[in-house]
Amino acid sequence: MQSLIDHARAHGQRPEDFAPLADGQSPEVLFITCSDSRVVPALITGARPGELFELRTAGNIVPPYVSDRPTGEAATIEYAVEVLGVGDVVVCGHSHCGAVGALVRGDDLTAVPAVRDWLAHAAPEPQASDADDPTVAEAVQNHVLAQLLRLRSYPCVEQRLATGRLRLHGWYYEVHTGAVRTHSASTDTFEAL
Q: Where are the compositionally biased (Basic and acidic residues) regions (predicted)?
């Protein structure tokens, strides 16, 4: 913790570098990814402050849209699309994902009921031909596609897609190599970015 505190103390030593951020934000991308500490969107993309609007959830899950029961996730998506006017949304899953791995293996999550109940939002359960694969690559990639499909059901996303003002992207990040793959609709595979 001390190294983080030391960095935070030194971070604001050049306020002139941050002054323009007071004028507002205009990110081009909403980046939806896992809460996993090994996944750092700005590091992966090289984004500077103000360039990415981020939504991080356990397992990069996009919960179902329910108009009479708003969630923080739905509010973040709606704000990014309607207020900030992002032109792209990336759903980025990652290798070695504990959430997806737990679903694929059918882990007993009774000791962590909030996690268990949150992961129920992942439906359909990610499919994998090799449940023993520690990277859970196939399952994570299938999960990313399911979350993109779920995202399409959000009214603001559906409307922007229909008018061509929004593009959706599915990414898979390998924490053990740093490589990023993107889903290609033409081949229905994840290919090098």
A: 1-17
